[in-house]
Amino acid sequence: MAPLKCMEKDYPLIDSHFQSFCASHAIFSFEDFLLYDLHALIASADNHSSSNTLKQGIDQLLSVIDAKLPSLRNGLQLLQDAECNKLLLPTGFQGIDALLGGGLRAGQLTELVGLSSSGKTQACLTSASTVAKQGGSVIYFDTGNSFSPQRIADLVGQTSDYVVDNQAELGPLQRVMERIMCYSVFDIYQMFDMLQQLKINLKSKIVESDHHVQLLIIDSISSLITPILGGRGPQGHALMISAGYLLKKLADDHNIAVMVTNHMVAGEGGTSKPALGESWKSVPHIRLLLSREYDSNVCNISTLKHPSVASGRAAKYTMYL
Amino acid sequence: MEKGGVKAWIDGDETAHDMLRRISAVRSTLLVPPLHRVPLRLGNVVEIVGPSPSAKTLILIQVAISFVLPREWNGVPYGGFDHSVLFLDLDCRFDISRFSQMLTHRIMEGNAIGDCDKTLYDLCMRRFLYARCSNSFEFLQTLKSLHYRLKREKDHGVGVHLLLIDSIGAFHWVDRASVFLSPKETNRKKLFLQSVSEAVVQDIKKLLQEHPMLVIATKSVIFGNTYSTTSNEVNRCSRNVTRNPQQIQYREYMPSVWQSLLIFLIYGAPSILAVLCYT
């Protein structure tokens, strides 16, 4: 909400005469100008005595708009950005990676949906350990105290030679564990605070540059959003959609892959459906459904929504315990 | 009939696949279903509604490809419209690699050799312009500055004749919840959602006057069938679309000012297709 008064010192054409002309049309801020009909304003400026200066003021505001926006990109530039910056991160499960065409893609928001104990948290922990092993930083928002350092150490120790036998060999394992930053988040406002702080840190590059943040995991985002949904007002849904946009913007601007988990609720006819409702469906880029056969290590994963893969395509993977 | 004539007549001239390929190369119409059922002209505004996921963005991508391809290239007919396309991504979910895949496939299909001509591919990719907005103010800013940007594009090369918006109801909840504080509170009878929608519609109308183009917008259904409580803030009407014995209820949530801009509305669900016409 930038009042026009404050813009005067940077843009001298927006002087007090122009401001009083705008005030006569109930335009007091930049946002008011955006909502007003531009042609009606120009027509009214024409009828005014000092129409030239007023029109120059209007042009000045339009050039401010033009300068603020990024220029239009064409398909080749987008593709080049996608190929150079938006890399694929393997999750550590061959089945999931095969389904996703290589792994989680930086710049995209992937959602894992599943019933309780279907392996969502295990998938998150495994992805975190895989990415950390390969040198990237991971930020883990844990909403239900389900993050387990012992499990991460087990996973890291399984597929490489970071064996924790004696204190002297703790070095490599410790370095991997240090790349995973875990935060406990218990309500959505705290999550917004932390995401804004992360945005500021990334923008000013406070984090050391040899370990880029590559993965952001929120386990589970539905436990943060469900308490505020419901009720008659739109505020809950608005917060949910804003959280989605904030995550997608972070992912796109800083080339991070974001992974969130969601639980399931009762749907029509006794089946289960993902929580968070219809509006949430258009937020993630990719939605995957996890399920686990009873008392078995084999998990099924199928796509609910993916830009390139038909929904319903399934794969199996085995969890190592 | 002659001896071999009966058999030849039964065998037919060509398969349906060959015929489709021949027609789509020769006749430049929007053969992309479901748009092939509606007569479209520059200046029309079409809305494609459907639950998520129902391939709405895929329809937009296919239309975009049929617009950026030239009518013919190196002797090979592609049947495109030879224009530039602008894609406004309000959902911030567009995947350029999907577009690239489909374009490559289309070029290879039309080519007799079956390979992808790099020059043609680059030309088409360059004609696809993209912008993303993450809130209503950015959307309004983009629309207001579009007039000058489109003029610049036209001076450089081909003009933009297709505007794709994905999806128009993206900021609905955020706008509904916004309390827009203004010093002159008493003058503000209208709600923020109403003001934003009116501003968007006005900008699009003015844009269409200067640059005639076809506007196609997608919208996802955000109120399921079991939504019971309704607030009186937004002018809403529920439509019953009947097709065969099944009855689908789809609740309109965009303000009536947007409805007045539309020419056609296409409702797509996984198995149902209906076209509602506005006059």
UniProtKB/TrEMBL annotation, chain A:
Gene3D superfamilies: P-loop containing nucleotide triphosphate hydrolases
Key words, A-Z: ATP-binding, DNA damage, DNA recombination, DNA repair, DNA-binding, Nucleotide-binding, Nucleus
Coiled coil: none
A Pfam family matched in the record: Rad51
Database matches in CDD domains: Rad51D (cd19489)
InterPro entries in the cross-refs: HRR_RAD51_Paralog, P-loop_NTPase, Rad51_C, Rad51D_C, RecA_ATP-bd
Compartments, as annotated in UniProt: Nucleus
Protein name: RecA family profile 1 domain-containing protein
Domain RecA family profile residue range list: 85-264
Superkingdom as given in the UniProt entry: Eukaryota
Family according to the record: Belongs to the RecA family. RAD51 subfamily.
From TrEMBL, chain B:
Record keyword Zinc present: no
Gene3D superfamilies cross-referenced by the UniProt entry: P-loop containing nucleotide triphosphate hydrolases (3.40.50.300)
Membrane-spanning parts: 257-278
Domain called RecA family profile: residue spans: 20-221
Superkingdom of origin: Eukaryota
UniProt keywords, alphabetically: Membrane, Transmembrane, Transmembrane helix
Protein name, per record: RecA family profile 1 domain-containing protein
Species of provenance: Stylosanthes scabra
